[in-house]
Amino acid sequence: MGSIESERTTVGWAATDPSGILSPYTFTLRNTGPDDVYIKVHYCGICHSDLHQIKNDLGMSNYPMVPGHEVVGEVLEVGPNVSRFKVGEIVGVGLLVGSCKNCRPCQSDIEQYCNKKIWSYNDVYIDGKPTQGGFAETMIVEQKFVVKIPEGMEPEQVAPLLCAGVTVYSPLAHFGLRGSGLRGGILGLGGVGHMGVKIAKALGHHVSVISSSDKKKQEALEHLGADQYLVSSDATAMQEAGDSLDYIIDTVPVGHPLEPYLSLLKLDGKLILMGVINTPLQFVSPMVMLGRKSITGSFIGSIKETEEMLEFWKEKGLRSMIEMVKMDYVNKALERLEKNDVRYRFVVDVKGSKLVDE
């Protein structure tokens, strides 16, 4: 790989302040080491958490910031210790690019729960350099955090799976909810929600989509194959559906009441939170106690789970529903995402975009 002394520069699109407007930005990649993979980015999905980060919604943003953590690209070079990947291979990179490797989560192959994990952007790498994401020409990533993509999968289809897909797959696997015949609810039909419907249906579950209005009813039932559509404000329908679900995947990324959804769960049912919400959520304790119900959370998935989920996705012949955009449309795409105006995931064609005016 390139010598340690020679730094590489690349071009990305970065936010420079909490307005979240992205524009071309040239920056230096970190030095490469023996375990690193140098990747040319082909595609990158746009996730709702990218919006939170570029707009400093969580009060932790550092600028300039190149977002993007659903990255699919081509291996350009590998370090001498890299054994899992070879030049020319199409690979993936998700939300993490580092962890301590010594703690219990790291030793248990669930490195996403490491307290010293390093985010793929808006973080600082072990060498002190800021990490930058996939809205850029190239990235350097340690091989442990690079994902193998099964042969024959379309790269632009894979991008949303590296965050949205594994975010749903991981809790279903961990909580023993993979058996067929279960009844599941998907609350919120955005990028993660649409993955939830597809994965749950492929596992043989009866799937209810729960939404705040009926505007996505036809899509949920006809295009995604859900079995039932519940409008949360329809008190009669919600009451009739009470005590019927084994689990609910709650993807809503803004504050919302939990009680209406807790009442849908059976005995020992689980409400699994996935939306990044920076305001407290409320419920009265008998809602949980009287059905031995759990409110829990889950965070993305490990590299191991991601690779397992990609194999599952390929085996079942599933497809993501994506809208491809070029980088010069990315600000409009983010604006539309904020209004939930996307079916169901934007994917930026980085390879086919002119990242900087000549």
Q: What brief labels describe this structure?
A:
ADH_Zn_CS; CAD-like; 358 residues; Cinnamyl alcohol dehydrogenase; single chain; alpha/beta; Rossmann fold; oxidoreductase activity, acting on the CH-OH group of donors, NAD or NADP as acceptor; seven-stranded mixed beta sheet
Number of strands: 19
Q: Tell me the count of domains.
A: 2
CATH architecture classification of the largest domain: Alpha-Beta Complex
Based on the structure, what is the oligomeric state of the protein chains?
Answer: single chain
- In the predicted model, the low-confidence regions spanning at least 5 consecutive residues are 1-5
Terminal CA distance: 28 Å
Give the class from helix and strand content and strand pairing: alpha/beta
- Amount of helix: 10-25%
Whole-number mean pLDDT:
95
CATH topology of the largest domain: Quinone Oxidoreductase, Chain A, domain 1
The DSSP helix count reads 11
Biggest sheet layout: 7 strands, mixed
Q: What is the CATH C-level name of the largest domain?
A: Alpha Beta
Compressed to H and E, one letter per element, the order equals EEEHEEEHEEEEEHHEHEHEHEHEHEHEHE
CATH evolutionary superfamily of the largest domain: Medium-chain alcohol dehydrogenases, catalytic domain
- Rg of Cα set: 20 Å
